[in-house]
Amino acid sequence: MSVQGFTGIVQGPLAQYLQISLKIGGDVAQHSQLVNQAFNAQLQFLQLASQSGKPASQNDLMNFLRPTSDCISAIQNFRESNRTSAFFNHLSAISESIPALGWVTVSPAPAPYVKEMNDAGQFYTNRVLKDWKEKNKNHVDWVKSWIQTLTELQAFVKQFHTTGLVWGGKGVAAAPPPPCAPLPPPPLADFNAAPTDPGVDRSALFAQLNQGMNITSHLKKVTPDMQTHKNPTIKQVGPVPFRGGDLSGGPGGIQADKPPKFVNDGKKWIIEYQKGNHQLLIENTEMSNVVYLYKCIDSTVIIKGKINSITMDSCKKTAVVVDSLVSVIEFINCQSVQMQVFGKVPTISIDKTDGCQIYLSRDSLDVEIISAKSSEMNVLIPKGNGDYTEVPIPEQFKTTVLPNNTLSTVVVESKG
Questions:
Q1: CA 393 – CA 188 distance, rounded (Å)
Q2: Using only C-alpha atoms, what is the Rg of the chain?
Q3: How far apart are CA 206 and CA 407, in angstroms?
Q4: Residue 181 carries which DSSP code?
Q5: In CATH, what number does 2-180+199-214 get?
Q6: I need a labelling partner for 265 at 20 to 30 A (CA). Which of 63, 102, 105, 254 fits?
Q7: Which among 157, 85, 64, 88 has a CA at the least distance from the CA of 118?
Q8: Per-residue exposure over 388-415, b if at least 16 CB sit within 10 Å of its own CB, e if not
Q9: CB–CB of 274/259 below 8 Å?
Q10: Farthest-apart Cα atoms in the chain, separation
Q11: CB–CB of 33/183 below 8 Å?
Q12: Helix, coil or strand: residue 217
């Protein structure tokens, strides 16, 4: 029954998602092939689990999970390799929620984990709806089919594997299913993707499990002679260690191997891997122009004129100063960033960002600020005498259940 239930998902909402992805085409269609492989890998794993007993060792279990894990990694790496794609929000919605297939490793209640992953992709599915609902109904149906896929997956897990993955047999498990097959090379017309960053791996759940009991085997023991508080001279030797967050996706957060980029690609300005550069100036802009900043550190970008939108992705200690915006400025996965607008900005979006200072103008006081999974956000409102009033954006909320079985959520002031 468990295998039949999962097959119903594959043949139902997932098949609809795949069909609509092919209609949309491009990166969305390619990405969906990897998603199809991931679900098929899990179907084969569930067939194996229904016919055999649980493997005796953790390493054997990881071998059976590896095909699904590899497919999840391939899905997320495809997103990282196509950050300049016109369908980046589509790719992100899938990449953020596909770890839902990791429910097989969760106990005692895996169903809530599936819902959590479904919610993780909601930020990007909302963007897809916002960008496409007035342009192409296929994209609206695409969002509905994917959300329905994960919703039915949650119901399936709750029904058949309530307290964790159920192994149906008593014998020894057979050979693991085949690995995730690579995608065929895309047509030359689709080769507009950013270079692959091999250091990025968001499949944390499976990556850790695949190491089994060897997860700490590579760590070195710290002996007394290596401790700085017992040997002050150590502090005087060698370079200062990097203490910031890992913004590069690579080992140690080092970005030196990536050359800085500042180019105008048609209507899109691309600024990447800038470090300590406060002389970044964009002039002669048009209202259709967009600006995309990626992994910049300790830099400042000044934009003259009115442009369409700005996206700041994985930046740290970086500021943007702009005259006016037609639509939105977005902060994604950033740390200690700032923005100042002299004219109009309709929307500010802050996602997974720690530390964001927003300097508004009198013309932008009707702005809408949308935040999710972020902290230390402050809006500075002009007083009229050159000074600003600093107002924090709430981060803490209280939710209660009302008598009519609906929820009521209010802001709770943090007392520190």
A1: 46
A2: 24
A3: 34
A4: P
A5: 1.25.40.330
A6: 254
A7: 157
A8: eeeeebeeeeeeeeeeeeeeeeeeeeee
A9: no
A10: 79
A11: yes
A12: coil
Per-residue DSSP letter, 394:
P
What percent of the chain shows pLDDT beyond 70?
Answer: 78
Reported as a single tens digit per residue, the pLDDT across 341-387 is 999 999 999 999 999 999 999 999 999 999 988 999 999 999 877 78
pLDDT tens for residues 190-217?
334 443 443 434 344 445 445 444 444 4
Between CA 371 and CA 386 the distance in angstroms is: 27
> Two tokens at 83?
């950050």
What token pair was written down for 3?
A: 């295998």
Average pLDDT, the chain: 81
Residue with tokens 């997974």: 352
Token couple for 42: 């899990």
CB 305 within 8 A of CB 299: no
Helices 137-160 & 15-24 angle (0-180, nearest 10): 160
Strand ranges (DSSP E) for 230-382? 261-265, 268-272, 280-282, 290-294, 300-313, 319-332, 335-341, 347-351, 354-359, 368-372, 375-382
Interval 78-111: pLDDT, tens: 998 998 899 999 999 999 999 999 999 888 889 9
Specify the CATH number of the domain 256-411: 2.160.20.70
Q: How confident is the model at residue 178 (pLDDT cuts 50, 70, 90)?
A: low
Residue extents of the structural domains in the chain: 2-180+199-214, 256-411
